[in-house]
Amino acid sequence: MLTSEEAESFLTNVLKFKNWREVLEGDKLEFLRVLVPYYAHNLYFHNVCMNIVPSAERRVPTAQDIVSAGLSGIGGACITQNTFLTYLLQAIGFNSYTVSGFVHGPRNTPDNHVICIVEFSPEEKYLLELGVALPFAEPVPMHKLPFTQTAAGFRYRYKKADDREGVFYRVQLDGALFGGEFEDKSTEYVRYEFTMKPQPVEFFQEPLVAVFIDVDTSIFLQHPFMFRYFEEDDSGNLVDEPNISGDRKWILIRGVSVLIGTDKGKEVKHYDNYDQVKPVILKHFPKFREEDVEKALECWNTSVVKYGYFKAR
After folding, report:
1. How far apart are CA 279 and CA 90, in angstroms?
2. Which Pfam families match (predicted)?
């Protein structure tokens, strides 16, 4: 779906990963490690675009929609972020494919998540997760599970399901991102599950109706929901260059709740309404046009009548 020329231009001009070819030729796994912060810094996980489309015109993104959104550098939800990442890697020689996941939540819709897998060999596979509103620091070696990382001072882990063959989990340990520590120290909260079976983009057309079209089942159509990594200078101004190593900063917006975190800590602020969140969005997601954010806010403010303001806990 993506030509090598388009991939090369995207890496250089959109991700601004100037020495990508040198890194790739030196070490494929190191290339993936460095690609993660470039991608998470420059392509946003968000729901702005789907909320500026008239309800009668909403649809689950096709392969061409995904390519257009990816090449533009604006990003989108999981099917856009992780499928475009898969196409990008395929175009520069990787064996990559998408698999189906199931994000656990109040509306349990099977196959509601898309994840990217990169296969070096049948015995060496890596998961790349850049299409979810959760921190993701580096490629997960699926052949060396369990694999544990830290965000906002709490651990999260990728692991095999104990009692379900071929199923894997991302679990939250210690405490919730927006909340505090779990009372029960042994808690393993399953954020999502997935299998390693390759699935084409067409497979997700029906399951993702619940995300892209049906307002009653989709948190994406009810309130602001976005995530990215970012860096600031000493004056608090955003900088273009991502943090390749060390403790990176990231922002997660859910409804009227905003979390700015690092590996080790976090700051949480809850606003009174979605209009108060607007300046936060415009500052931390500068690729968005203000008129598009305002149009999305109109949609979310309309949803308040039925669903209320979403406050993360």
Report:
1. 37
2. Acetyltransf_2
Is 239:231 a contact under the CB 8 Å cutoff? yes
Average pLDDT estimate for 74-93:
98
Q: Which amino acid is at 31?
A: F
Pick from 100, 124, 122: nearest CA to 112: 100
Structural domain includes residue 163: no
In a domain, 182, yes or no: no
Buried/exposed 64-103: b ≥16 CB within 10 Å, e otherwise: ebbbebbbeebbbbbbbbbbbbbbbbbbbebebbbbbbbb
Those residues whose C-beta lies under 8 Å from the C-beta of residue 138, and which sit 6 or more positions away, are: 33, 36, 149
Name which of 71-85, 104-118, 210-224 the model is least confident about: 104-118
**Residue the block writes with tokens 């209009």:** 275
The two three-digit tokens of residue 106, written as one number = 């109040």
Inside any domain, residue 268? yes
Number of domains in the chain: 1
Phi-psi region of 216 (alpha: psi -120 to 50; beta: other; left: phi over 0): alpha
What pLDDT band is residue 313 in, cutting at 50, 70 and 90? confident
Q: Are 36 and 130 in contact (CB under 8 A)?
A: yes
- Average pLDDT, integer, range 101-118: 89
pLDDT tens digits along 206-229: 999 999 999 998 999 999 999 999
Q: Which residue has the tokens 């499928």?
A: 83
